[in-house]
Design goal:
The chain is an alpha/beta fold and about 525 residues long. Helix content is about 30%, strand content about 25%. The strands form five sheets. The protein has a 15-stranded mixed sheet that branches. The chain is globular.
Length: about 525
């Protein structure tokens, strides 16, 4: 028996553990499938510490692979399912993936990526796809056939594994975050402690907990909001694609107690028509957490008015986990705050001289785990060093202050980043793709306000001399070329939604782009600048 599931399999084997678009798995069924997957992957030669890349949706297989890695000593690398083949190929090479598991909708992207993986001539040796049995030419084994080949009875010697998440990079490529979750070796007892601690922070209901996951499980926040509650016995309900009206239905149908949202989802919920909203009961909800992006005050107040004072905001990131939290009642007293640091985190506000600043003064925000945990970026020691003030003291790139009572307020971002719909987008990655187009002489990418998504991607392009055109029709044609160029290299959500052309971009005498002079006019009159 997979020991992390043992208490729940023993106590309620026939109750639902995971619910997805295809139905539900009981705790006993989940345990059986996880055991078989561990056995089958070991039989295929995967060794402790090997990386298993997974491009799949919010579906049972994603949960099963996560649990298998936690017991098998492997590192799960969840891959953004919006990525195109070159993006996936980079990560497969960078993490040196020993295995690739693809959901049924992403097999072709996986095949295309493997053809581009020049860094490793063969790519991952183990290739598995959900529903791939009818197409052996792709080189992928069928997931269910792989499960059938494994033993449900074979004793499992658990070895701790975990996830390594890739975040988009400020210098053009995603970077893997190696933190406490991605440690391998030893027993799985640490996962029991981590799961219990995170579940307590998330206020997972003590009795009959049901966690709804309505954001992509490749994201660290969504993964944590699925796996930690599962470890303490919560039923996990997976919504593959967010739909506001369907979210309300799922909450009532499955008596959901806990859910995680991002501000863009909150906006869409509030825009539902009165008839749809009036059908919603919602009495089962106990805790609603939101984060990943700044939330407009009007949106948060409106959701509190509708759902009650069960809305808790958090500030954090893949590198640092939950850094601070704030309840609805606290936030109503201190609107704009993201709360006080959790009991295991210290927040430092640091000035330009590297010295800690007193309450009320704005500076660079750094965090330190009081448990001694830290992180590093996989294969990127220079990026690791740049994110640290000293060993154990790191930053997410934000600027802010602490008030006299220790409540944290965010002011701006030091690093060049866009947050759209709760997803981090780094302009440098987009700029490097656009700069490779022969029509582009110079380019600047930044975020501008968007009522739904918080920010949307804007590109300002200086055309190369041979491509400069005054006619609006010519500019439209060039824009179409640039859009197509982006979409062949980048996931759609990274591609600029707005385009404008300039005779020259503002750069100083050493060539540094003064991007704020381009960005700031779009934010004039906005209640926030990030």
């Amino acid at each position: 028996m997979a020991n992390l599931l043992t208490p729940h399999v023993t106590a309620r084997p026939h109750e639902p553990a995971v619910v997805d678009d295809r139905g539900s798995l009981t705790w006993a069924e989940l345990n059986d499938r996880v055991n078989r997957l561990i056995s089958a992957l070991r039989a295929r030669g995967l060794a402790e510490g090997d990386r298993i890349a997974v491009i799949a949706g919010n579906q049972r297989e994603t949960i099963e692979v996560g649990l298998a890695c936690m017991h098998g000593g492997w590192i799960m690398v969840p891959v953004n399912w919006h990525w195109v083949a070159p993006e996936l190929a980079y990560v497969l090479s960078d993490c040196d993936a020993a295995a690739l598991i693809a959901g049924q909708q992403w097999t072709q992207v996986a095949v295309d990526a493997l053809e581009l993986d020049a860094a490793r001539s063969t790519g991952p040796a183990v290739r598995i796809a959900v529903g791939a049995a009818s197409d052996r030419s792709s080189g992928f084994d069928d997931y269910d056939e792989v499960l059938a080949s494994g033993s449900a009875e074979e004793p499992i010697e658990p070895t701790r594994g975990g996830p390594m998440f890739y975040t988009s990079g400020t210098t053009g490529h995603p970077k893997g975050v190696r933190g406490v979750l991605a440690e391998t070796g030893g027993g799985t007892e640490m996962w029991q402690l981590i799961g219990a601690s995170i579940a307590q922070t998330l206020e997972v209901a003590a009795e009959q907990p049901v966690q709804l996951v309505c954001g992509p499980a490749y994201h660290s926040a969504q993964w944590v909001n699925a796996m930690a509650p599962l470890l303490v016995g919560a039923t996990i309900v997976l919504q593959h694609r967010f739909d506001a009206a369907d979210l309300l239905r799922l909450i009532d149908e499955y008596r959901v107690t806990n859910v995680h949202l991002v501000p863009a989802q909150m906006v869409r919920l509030l825009r539902l028509d009165d008839a749809t909203r009036d059908t919603f009961d919602g009495s089962s909800l106990r805790a609603v957490f939101h984060g990943a992006a700044p939330c407009p005050e009007s949106v948060k107040r409106a959701l509190i008015d509708w759902w009650g004072p069960i809305i808790t905001e958090y500030y954090g990131g893949t590198e640092g986990g939950f850094i601070s939290t704030i309840s609805a009642s606290e936030w109503l007293e201190r609107p704009g705050s993201v709360g006080r640091p959790t009991s295991v985190i210290e927040v430092l506000v640091v000035g330009p001289d590297g010295q800690q600043l007193p309450a009320g003064e704005i500076g660079d925000l750094y965090f330190r785990s009081l448990l001694g945990s830290d992180f590093r970026y996989h294969n990127a020691p220079e990026k690791t060093a740049a994110a640290h003030l000293e060993a154990g003291v790191a930053t997410l790139g934000d600027i802010g202050s602490l008030d006299e009572d220790g409540y944290l307020f965010l002011s701006d971002r030091r690093i060049d980043m866009i947050i759209s719909g709760g997803v981090n987008i780094y302009p440098a990655e987009i700029e490097s793709v656009l700069a490779a187009h022969d029509a582009v002489n110079d380019v600047a990418v930044f975020g501008i306000p968007d009522d739904d998504m918080g920010e949307r991607v804007m590109a300002v392009v200086e055309l190369a001399a041979a491509h400069r055109a005054d006619a609006e029709s010519d500019l439209a044609a060039i824009t179409a070329q640039l859009v197509e160029h982006c979409r062949t290299q980048l996931a759609g959500y990274k591609c600029p939604r707005e385009w404008t052309f300039s005779d020259g971009l503002p750069r100083n005498e050493v060539g540094k782009l003064a991007k704020r002079t381009l960005r700031d006019p779009y934010w004039t009159g906005e209640a926030r600048t990030m």
